Amino acid sequence: MKSSAIDPHKIHEYSLEILSQTGFQIEDETIHDRLRERGVACSRKTGLIRFSPEQVEKALATVPRQVVLGARDSRYKIVLTPNGRTRFMPSGTGVAVIDWETGKRRPSTALDVEQFVRLSHAMAELDIARPVVTATDFPALKTDLVEFLAGFRHTTKHFHHRVLRPQNVATVIAMAEAVAGGSAELRQEPLISVCFCPTSPLLMVPETARSMLAFAANGIPVLVLSMAMGGATAPATILGEAILVNTEVIATIALIQTLYPGCPVMYGSVSSVMDMSTAILALGAPERGVLNAVLAGMANHYGIPCVMGGLSTDSKQVDVQSGYEKAMTAIPLLGRADVIFGPGVLNSGNTYSLEQLVID
Question: Does residue 320 contact residue 283 with C-beta atoms inside 8 Å?
């Protein structure tokens, strides 16, 4: 199916219908109370939030049409605009690496986080730095902080990551403000951005929603990143999955903009289809490139900068398979996606490699 054959107006209409009739679930009464004050229908019994078409359109109208991604070194500052130049950032956040010395797979550590950040900084081809992997040698409650600290220490590029625990948000903001020179300076040119994922279909975990909104309250750019799986958590057809992903992304953007109008946001998808023989999320499938090209078109339709998953593979090692799958998932996004998210990934997102990052 060609992405040009899909009408973005129809996808938008279907998304509005789903949001007003079915809804988007976040079981958090505090968030519900804040939305009710703004006239949004929320159900205490089901946790469903139902945005009317008018509320969605109003929210989308407040989204900034460009996103400033600041950097400690002004040479690395990025201004994302819809349908602009395609940029690149590494994938993440995995829990295993191919050890570059032994060639064997093992759990990732804080040292690996540091090495990936330093390599991301050194590579001119990468516009945005990431920790790429998780510091599994630290307690789960502290890994977010260890990974952000590596970003502040080892790169002067813009740094992108996520925080899964609301109690860690204030610490990350405090670190970013200390580096930026204050809260006003951080708002003006954010040195960091964050990504948060809906849980398909049409749900967001309360802790995820609270963390995301805490960053939005501080003016930090938020990437809304759907990870739908066609044939499992989403319809099996490209069009059906595109409608679901679009609905999840604009529901989350509507939530952010209703509570924090003007917060910079990015439209994102790392969605793909399920391999029916293994039940994995097939990141190297040809459908992935087509699907995310369609969704990049939706982001361009809305005038929102986008980040799309590409340069992806299901290969477990650096080989010919990883090469052709990465090309197949990236080429459809060139000239459509503002940022391609994927360098460094292997094994359907379960393993990462310094060598693969350089090759990508």
Answer: no
* CA–CA gap between residue 14 and residue 21 (Å, rounded): 11
- CB-based contact 266:66 (threshold 8 Å): no
- Distance of alpha carbon 282 from alpha carbon 45, whole angstroms: 35
CB 306 within 8 Å of CB 340: no
* Tens of pLDDT, residues 159-191: 999 998 999 999 999 999 999 999 999 999 999
The residue length of the chain stands at 360
**How do residues 126-160 score in pLDDT, each as one tens digit?**
999 999 999 999 999 899 999 999 999 999 999 99
**Distance in angstroms (rounded) separating the CA atoms of residues 348 and 339:** 20
Distance of alpha carbon 127 from the chain centroid: 15
- Predicted TM-score of the model (pTM): 0.96
**Token digits of residue 321:** 């398979």
Phi, psi of 252 (to 5 degrees): -70, -40
**Residue 282 in tokens:** 């097939």
> Could you report the per-residue pLDDT of 107-126, keeping only the tens digit for each?
999 999 999 999 999 999 99
Determine contact, residues 295/308, Cβ cutoff 8 Å. yes
> Has residue 3 got a pLDDT over 90?
no
